[in-house]
Design a protein that fits this description.
Distance between the termini: 15 Å
Structural class: mainly alpha
Shape: rod-shaped
Protein name: Phasin protein
Strand content: under 5%
Oligomer: single chain
Organism: Luteibacter jiangsuensis
Radius of gyration: 25 Å
Number of strands: 0
Largest sheet: none
Number of helices: 2
Order of helices and strands: HH
């Protein structure tokens, strides 16, 4: 009889480990999506600025590009800060979910 209980305990452990792994993977996937979105925003901004720089033909155009570059840098920092906040939120949600799974009583 105890051998059957051992198998049941092992099955519950494996089930809980699989559930925890799924929660962790979902969290990592959400973090990767947030990082990718931030990188895409940076790339779009840089691409536009480079395209305009290639067409600058006088000092005024270059000065305008420098001002625009400064603004894009500020926006990039804001995007990065926002992404970090979102990533921390995901990390907290994931850790909370894992904590709930770890604290679950064994099912009978």
């Amino acid at each position: 009889m105890s051998e059957v209980n051992g198998y049941a305990d092992l099955a519950r452990l494996v089930e809980q480990a699989a559930a925890a792994q799924a929660v962790a993977w979902r969290g990592m996937e959400r973090v990767a999506d947030l990082q990718l979105a931030a990188m895409e925003g940076h790339a779009r901004a840089a691409t536009g600025l480079i395209a305009d720089a290639m067409q600058a033909n006088d000092a005024d155009a270059v000065q305008a590009l420098v001002r625009r570059g400064e603004e894009l840098q500020r926006e990039g920092v804001q995007r990065a800060a926002s992404a970090v906040g979102d990533i921390l939120d995901v990390a907290v949600q994931t850790a909370t979910s894992l904590g709930v799974l770890a604290g679950q009583p064994a099912r009978a």
